Amino acid sequence: MIYDLIIVGGGPAGLSAAIYAGRFRMKTIVLAREMGGTVVNTHLIENWPGFKSLSGVELMEKIGDHVKSVGVEIRQAEVMEIKRKDKNFLIKSDGGEFEAKTVLLATGTKHRKLNVPGEKEFYGRGVSYCAVCDAVFFKDKIVAVVGGSDSAAKEALLLSEYGKRVYIIYHREKIRAEPINAERVAANKKIEVINNTSVLEIRGDKFVQSVMLDKPYKGKRELKLDGVFIEIGYDPQSELAKGMGVELDKRGEIVMGRESQTNVPGVYAAGDVTTGSFKQAITGAAQGVVAANSAYDYLNKK
Predict the structure, then answer these.
(1) Active site residue 65
(2) I need a surface site. Which of 69, 103, 157, 258 has the fewest CB within 10 A?
(3) 205 is catalytic
(4) Is 295 helix (H, G, I), strand (E, B) or coil?
(5) Where are the beta strands (DSSP E) in the chain?
(6) What is the predicted pLDDT for the residue at 42?
(7) Residues 104 and 241 in one domain
(8) Mind listing the pLDDT tens digit for each residue in 280-292?
(9) CA nearest 44: which of 143, 191, 161?
(10) Given 65, 94, 133, 214, the catalytic residue
(11) Could you say which of 213, 230, 247 is where a domain stops?
């Protein structure tokens, strides 16, 4: 079978594109290593229209059900290579090979690492990149969130529901959370922000026991902890795009036009893997919808 569109990525961008592709009656399949994207690690989403509050898992389950209702197949498979095959594209994955007339890259991002001693050694033994996944294991413990973004603030708020003390360690003067979350952090007596400070090392025995700071906190550079949650941003997963000759910017993000097109005809991009400063589930979903429409127009013109 030759598909009209193959969507690589199962987050908000990819699945929203799939809904429209299905409605356009395009032969479409979604291939993704992990369904839901990074948004499934979000404890509460309070800015998706129509839902005052729901979890990332709940949101993606609803979108996934919607995709299936329009007849688009979602298959769990890791795509390893995409290359030209005559006028089409050949997609090689651990779930087999697929051929398509157009491709949408909605491959998202991966957690950025601190790259300090102890981070790799204590991963899964006190070091985590997902509070939604692991907060429950730190009940009545002392933990730290490294980072100062809105995501870091939300991680700290969730952890405060379990731990007895939560530190936010950030290398700048002030955390960059949305005002509503910054207010929640400031009002939470369990949370303390340590500004202008970086983590140099994570220490422990079998599990995390402390972190070493680049400057003293209350007279000591060593801060006793039971867990470290790293939330310092994400790097684009654009390796497939690079292999296809798709243009990337200096950060490795896919350069996307107004119609979600790339420099390679028939190849589109959407979501966090693309250029743009405001990366949200809803903006990625919108880009995915535009991409599906662009692919539909491209096929009709061909």
Answers:
(1) no
(2) 258
(3) no
(4) helix
(5) 2-8, 28-32, 73-76, 79-85, 88-93, 96-105, 109-111, 127-128, 142-146, 165-169, 191-194, 199-204, 208-217, 220-224, 227-230, 234-236, 267-269
(6) 87
(7) yes
(8) 999 999 999 999 9
(9) 161
(10) 133
(11) 230
Domain range for 180 is 127-230
Q: Where in 129-176 does DSSP place strands (E)?
A: 142-146, 165-169
User: What is the CA 194 to chain-centroid distance, rounded?
Assistant: 25
Shared domain for 253 and 218, answered yes or no, is no
- Identity of the amino acid at 145: V
Name, in order, each residue with C-beta under 8 angstroms of 36's C-beta and a sequence gap of 6 or more. 10, 11, 56, 57, 60, 64
pLDDT beyond 90 at 276 = no
Contact 78, 94 (CB under 8 A): yes
Is 249 one of the catalytic residues?
no
Asked whether residue 120 is domain-assigned, the answer is no
| Rounded distance between C-alpha atoms, residue 134 and residue 228, angstroms | 11
Contacts of residues 174-182 at CB distance under 8 Å and 24 or more positions apart, as own/partner, are: 174/148, 175/148, 175/149, 176/148, 176/149, 176/150, 177/148, 177/149, 177/150, 177/152, 177/153, 178/150, 178/153, 181/150, 181/153, 181/154, 181/157, 182/153
| Pair (250, 191) in one structural domain | no
pTM for the predicted model, two decimal places: 0.85
- CATH code for the domain in which residue 154 is found: 3.50.50.60
Q: Which of 230, 248, 274 is the last residue of a domain?
A: 230
pLDDT classification of 41: cutoffs 50, 70, 90: confident
Rounded Cα distance between 79 and 239, Å, is: 11
**Cα separation, 22 vs 31, whole angstroms:** 15
Mean pLDDT of the chain: 96
